[in-house]
Amino acid sequence: MKIISWNCNGGLRNKTYFLDQFDADILVVQECENPVYSTHAFRDWAGQYLWHGDNKNKGVGIFARKGHHIAALDWSSAEYEIRSPSPVQKSLKWQANQLELFLPCLINQELTLIGAWTKQANSPNFCYIGQLWLYLQMQRDKIAARADSLILCGDLNSNPIWDEADRFWNHSDVVAELQALGLQSAYHCLKAEVAGQETDPTFYLHRKESKAYHIDYFFVPERMLPTSKLMLSSVTESLHVSDHRALILDIGSASNETMALSDGL
């Protein structure tokens, strides 16, 4: 099965050709518009899909291809609370539907997929990777129960180069929690690179190669790694249509050896 994760930088209805060339089974697209409110042509292209967001022009979409079936998972009732140990008795509470943005679903009633696009979410402290940390606290039991067949992917807007010493929801902390659940970063395992020292950026601020960062990820069960391959779309082609490169995960396509990434296909 081939799964693509890509932040399209908006206007997916005009960029579908970029995704079509990869002939994937499942597409996870961040910053894409809701097909319901778009053109007839885009709705036809979308086919069977799920979409989540608070802005009809920019959300997370998951699109099924080649007869695969996707069904939304309703994990919206979860919540998480942090209580202050001080005599003031303050607390902070979040509900799952407040977090931005996570779209969990089932593929063919077998594989659990969580499409993610972490945002600022009007939070000065728990923005971006903090949103994923909160999501893990809320959904830990569900994720743990499915971890052997669960994939989390998307634009996390995060990298350990931005870790802060006095914060326990840093990028590195979240990766450690995912690893404790049995989920590994496909890029770092398959290319044997250290987090924060990636040689392949996935995001180019203002589409400038001089301002490049690695902020898009696939986290997969460790058992999938020996027979998986991960590739990135070429920098040149990607920057014509977005400020992100696409990540293409091919599960079960490789022989029993670790496959390296390549720039392009």
Automatic annotation (TrEMBL):
Residues 4-244 form the Endonuclease/exonuclease/phosphatase domain. It comes from the Bacteria. Keywords: Endonuclease, Hydrolase, Nuclease. SUPFAM superfamilies: DNase I-like (SSF56219). This is Endonuclease/exonuclease/phosphatase family protein. The keyword Cytoplasm does not apply. The keyword Hydrolase applies. It holds the Pfam family Exo_endo_phos. GO terms for molecular function: endonuclease activity. InterPro entries: Endo/exonu/phosph_ase_sf (IPR036691), Endo/exonuclease/phosphatase (IPR005135). It comes from Chitinibacter mangrovi.
